[in-house]
What we know:
The structure holds two protein chains of two kinds. In chain A, 22% of the residues lie in helices and 37% in strands. Chain A contains ten helices and 20 strands. In chain B, strand 4 (53-62) and strand 5 (65-66) form a beta hairpin. Chain B has helices at 40-48, 72-77, 95-109, 117-130, 148-162, 178-191, 230-239, 242-249, and strands spanning 2-11, 14-24, 29-33, 53-62, 65-66, 80-83, 90-94, 141-142, 166-170, 197-202, 215-220, 223-228. In chain B, the strands form three sheets. A six-stranded mixed sheet of chain B has the order 6-9-10-3-11-12, sandwiched between helices. Classes of the chains: A alpha/beta, B alpha/beta. Chain B: Keywords: ATP-binding, Nucleotide-binding.
Amino acid sequence: MELKEKLVSSFMAFENMVDIDSPIHDIRTEAIKNFETEGFPSKRQEAWKYTSLNSVLKHDYSVFPKHEKALEYSDVKRYFIHEIDTYKIVFIDGKYSSHLSQTTHDGIDVCLMSAALSKPKYRLIIENYFNKIAPKDGLSSLNTAFSAEGAYIHIPKNKLVTKPIQIVHFSTGNEAALMVQPRNLVVVDENSHVQIIERHQSLTDNPVLTNSVTEIFANKRAIVDYYKIQNDRESASLIDNTFINQKQESIAKVHTFSFGGKLTRNNLNFYQNGERLDSTMKGITIIGNKQHVDHNTLVHHIEPNCESHQDYKGIFNDSATGVFNGKVIVEKDAQKTNAFQANNNILISDKASINTKPQLEIFADDVKCSHGCTIGQLDESAMFYLRSRGIPEKEARALLMFAFSNNVLGSVKIPEIKSRITKIIASKLGVNIGFDL
Amino acid sequence: MLKINNLHASVEDKAILKGINLDVKPGEVHAIMGPNGSGKSTLASVIAGKEEYEVEEGEILLEGENIDELGPEERAHKGVFLSFQYPVEIPGVSVTNFMKTAINETRKAKGLEDMPANEMLKMIREKSEMLEIDRKFLSRSLNEGFSGGEKKRNEIFQMAMLEPRLAILDETDSGLDIDALRIVANGVNKLKSKDNAVIVITHYQRLLDYIVPDYVHVLHDGKIVKSGSAALAHELEAKGYDWIKEEVNA
């Protein structure tokens, strides 16, 4: 059976399994109808022109993992930013692991989506925020239809949450092939500040497909720092759909570090519903073999005096392929918008490729918008210069590539993340030099 | 130390060096002069191991070993240093960390441990003071936005840090004002010893007032057509290069 049919026909069983009286029952039912109509995206759609899901959809995924397999923290510690104290919301094969998690209800709510969906005290937040900004395309609808588990984070106003929150999904290989659909909701109220780290990690080479939806609401003057560490095995694929709604004077930053996975698609949308706010998205992509990473971004400038900054660096080796599709819409009322977009790429191998496409739709007349895309190779004269100083070819190459992606790390506020990413980059580039640059 | 026998080299099938012979012994300073396009910079790059140059004939011996097959980094590990005529800008890599990487990779190649951080810092302080380099300058990205003079001074700073056995200064004087020239020349002179050697490549005699050569060679059309003492440099300064060309063509 095709995956689409399998999913549609599983929906009834799913609804019976979860709480049928759930406040989002109607939303789910509508969503599955949407998915039935829309299906999975195909290359005929403009936004999917360079990314085909065919090779990912062909597996016979189990969509309801049978039971949780226990994991010991010591075995998976290295996948956490373990050097610092953090809240943790951890899932194993799509199921919540209380053993590995550290949640809280002490002034803030860092807990499970399933709890938020079932307990009356969360009802108002769910009603006000759940599925309010996720679009109605096939993949988001599919996730909405099956949304039951994920992270629920609500920071009431005037809270500075000093401990970062880690959302980690493990897949254990318990199933021959596994599809998971995490659903996260993050609501940050006035003047509050939160830092979130998200990671998906497969522990075996069994195929895994994750179709995740995260809705983030940054209310007035809220600050949200979101870090996505994508360094999974090359048997795992990830479709990450993240939607951010910002109110006035809020600051939302998303850093996406893409090093692993077979196919990774990041749909990242910012909606600016307030004045004087700032949206930032930055990314480093370093991939090889036949890996594929597609960044599909949208910034919707709706109100005046707002800023957006995009800076994505990509390094592609072997037969790796990359896509950057960055859309910036500036509405008529969004005067004095300052929108900046850059996508710079290095192709190391003749077989690697990148398709980069900036799209600016500007309807206001007093704005500053800039964009630039570059695709190049490593500078041979720089290579000779470094080598003539005794730095071997491989290290020289790595140093130049690190220097190329370095400025994206400048805005990472948690030093432990910075040093972790630096280490991943060094190992990805196959060198053992400290890039404490 | 360095012996070059009948060296022919070309780039993209265009012959540039057409039979160079040169013998540099420890403790010596050799100046290579010559008009534009005579092959001076090519000679420097070929000795340092730039791969786009093809050695067609002859050999370069360093301490008696043929280095033709060695990459630029291996030559550097054996003590060859080239001060670039046009140092390359490398955004994102600071001068200090570049030096750390270069020194530790060189030590690694020799089977040594990394240089301890405090030793490294002390060395950086000493050498930068010697070349009157502002400390702030060291945390800037390598050569990015440096003036011509700053780039050249930074080259000599790297030379001081790496302590090469054979230093080749390719047009180090170009772009330097008189004060910077003096500082750079002083730096080079302080680094000179009976164990190392310097090849100064220059178009003008100016630098040779400060770094006094033991031998002066004139390069013309890919060959050394005349060699002499420091006096030859003065003669070239006074008379230009045309008389040499006439002598060769006669």
